[in-house]
User: What shape does this take?
Amino acid sequence: MTTATPAVSFAVTEEQRLLRATVRELVTARATSERVREVMLGDDGYDRDAWAELAQTGLTGLTIPERFGGAGASFAEVAIVIEEAGRRLLPVPLLSSAVLGTEAVLAAGTEQQCAALLPAVAEGATTLALAHLDQRGGLTSEPGVTARRDGGDWVLEGTAGYVVDGASADLVVTAAVSDDGLLLLVVPGESAGLARRPVEVLDLTRPMATLVYDGVRVGDDARLAADDAIVALHRALSAGVVAIACEQVGGASQMLEMTTAYARDRIQFGRAIGSFQAVKHRLAELLVQVESARSTAEHAARVLAEGDREELAIAAPMAKSYASEVFERASADGIQLHGGIGFTWEHDAHLYFKRAKATKLLLGSPSHHRALLAEVLGL
Amino acid sequence: MTMDERTLVTERIDKLLASHPPATTPEREFWGAQFDHGLAWVQHPEDFGGCGVSPRWQAEVDRRIVEAGGSVRNRYLNVLGIGMGAGTLMAHADEQRQRRMLRPMFTCEEIWCQLFSEPGAGSDLAALSTTAVKEGDTWIVNGQKVWTTLAHLATWGLLVARTDPDVPKHAGLTYFVVDMQADGVDVRPLYQITGEAEFNEVYFDDVRINDDMRVGEVGQGWAVAMTTLMNERVAIGSNVAPRGSGAIAHALEAWRQHGGDDPVARDQLLRYWVEAEAQRLTTIRAGEARKSGTPGPEGSTGKLHWADLNKAITAFTIDLLGAEGMTYPGGYEFTRPDETANRAESPHKAFLRARANSIEGGTSEIMKNILGERVLGLPGEPRVDKNVPWREVPRS
Assistant: This one.
């Protein structure tokens, strides 16, 4: 059992403060309620203008090393960008491309593969997705896709479910079982034999797709060959888990702020409803929870940035399980405290509520992560 | 500036440790020397136990002393004096009082207690009804205080009393230092839920206090008391314990000893482990933000979060004990502990003691009002006693 107290630092550098201010400004201008709704009901899959602006600002390839055209920053910076994007539900493939796909390529790709793939990702010209779950969304040692050698090529068959931004991604990093064990293969989204069916998602701001591989053929250079695919997949998923926790903190903070502002303005019985303790205390309890969730998410992001794998095995499931439940509660209480208006389509509360529920279940539920943690702690 | 402070503090510590090796110097003598070297509370001025640097250097001083085999347990033995009284005296008392009282406070030759709460004034502290009436140069005090830690050992008490009942409640209070050995002061043990008397009731029957023991102006007692209370809440909420210690350690032990295999209980245990760690990390984050001069809302949530969580975890631990949870090992001893009971102890006692966490130092309900109004900026409840003379406000 691990009782050692890690040396934690939450110190914020001047660059990080600046980064947050820059991103907040960009996201606030881009992700207006009108624009988010336009994108979520449109066919593009994500906000391409916003993505282009993020790319120009160097935010689409933050963790990509400079030699591959990226910013060479750490996950502490990614955490800031993701949190700020999460605040406004900015519909862009940060999680799928900048975190899951990029981390998988970085962890499993050879130097040449990284050099071939990542500059376009850093530029925002190419987006990545990660297909690793089976059709029913299960994460097992046997994903739903198989890869078989055919001459110098690989032929993929089967179905991958719940692929975030799977329909819009230019390249899909696909986990497939082969006679050589688990492989990670980079499959072009427009490959012959690949059918990408949008899932009817709860959270419209984050599209998912079911990917059906029917004899999809790729060359051997599509196989990410530098490292054990299981280890690489694990790394990518850990980063994804931490990124989601950061995004959830952003969403929960925004919901708390929106609801607090409403409680100050909304008058009933001749008083602002925030003056009633029934309302005030609920918001105070949320503040406590949101601040604690922020601590777990920031801690996990910094642990990831420092590459402390042992502590990450504690910090990541802790952050994901805690931030998930806090965001869910913040968004549910947000609807309740807004009263009737909070239940309407017109109000944004439901967008956060749906994002909270969907991210709670994405990459492992809170109880799943607590079970992982129990194993690490020997309980 | 910071480098200068580091040099100054380091030099002083070196000098103190050289002239008074902690391992061979009696505790009180060492604390006296620490005070004389300006290292008792570094933020206060020279000659008053400080050296006029940023308070954040205190942690460094304490670390060096402990490292050298010395003790900083005076902060604990005289928690109300050192933790709350010193700051209040420095901010509001006259220089003569400061010179007389601060050193023996720090050396624990004189223990202090805090005489604020009353049976009729808990959360609504400003409604208190202990009176002080002036006769010449002397104040005559009558009334009752309650929930008074360490009163039975105390030389001095920090007292807030009503000096004018005809003005609204906050305006009619005055702050005093009272001699706990004075005629008419009666300290009685207050037995609590654990069977121990950690606290006291204190009765005042025509107790005489000379006007020179007044702290702050007549009618300014509320502002002075706020200085004390702000120090108290910081002291309660800001201790950073190691990961997995405290209440959650009891829970883990109970889980292991009772061969935990219930998946529902395991999930709940993990939930509490995570939340305890989240609260701990938040305390660390708040401490760092304070040090870097950018404190945020995280600095105000600690007390509330810790109190409610500690209650929940200690209660859950008793559940994990099964039948043993129906016992109280050692029985109820009607004694006075010489330290406050928040230390390592049996899970049974911790379970009962934790009930006070959400009452002492500001109830959780009051803490939520404070967070709601001061941090989130929500409006207050309408106050029926506002601008009404204290005498005319209904009381239970």
About this structure: Chain B has twelve helices and eight strands. The beta strands of chain B are 112-115, 131-135, 138-146, 156-162, 173-179, 185-190, 199-210, 214-215.
